[in-house]
Amino acid sequence: MELILQYIKIYFSQKGQGISEYALLLGFVVTIVSVVLLSPFGGGKMFMSILEAFGMVIRTLTGKA
């Protein structure tokens, strides 16, 4: 019985660690992408160009000038 409890404890601690690592990695990637895309020196202009391009496509497809 003690062996089973040790196994369960190890399993759940490893699973929790994996989820925590994934969440930290995801947060890091989102932060880096946000800084790059929204900074005026980085990709700010690129981000605005992408928005303008999508706006032109939407206006063309809907027929609105």
Explain how this protein is built.
This protein has two helices and no strands. The longest helix is centred in the N-terminal third of the chain and has 37 residues, at 2-38. With 65 residues, the chain is mainly alpha-helical. The termini are far apart. The mean pLDDT is 78. It has one domain (2-62). Keywords: Membrane, Transmembrane, Transmembrane helix. This is Pilin protein. The chain crosses the membrane at residues 22-41. It comes from Mitsuokella multacida.
Layout of strands and helices, then pairs:
Blueprint: H1 2-38, H2 44-62
Short description:
It comes from Mitsuokella multacida. The protein has 65 residues and is mainly α. Helices cover 86% and strands 0% of the residues.
Core attributes:
single chain, 65 residues, mainly alpha, 2 helices, 86% helix, Pilin protein, transmembrane, transmembrane helix, membrane
How many discrete domains?
Answer: 1
Number of helices: 2
Mean residue pLDDT: 78
Cα radius of gyration in angstroms:
23 Å
Strand proportion, as a percent range, falls in: under 5%
Please provide the count of β strands: 0
Order of helices and strands: HH
The structure class reads: mainly alpha
Low-confidence stretches: none
Could you describe the largest sheet, including whether it forms a barrel?
A: none
Distance between the termini: 73 Å
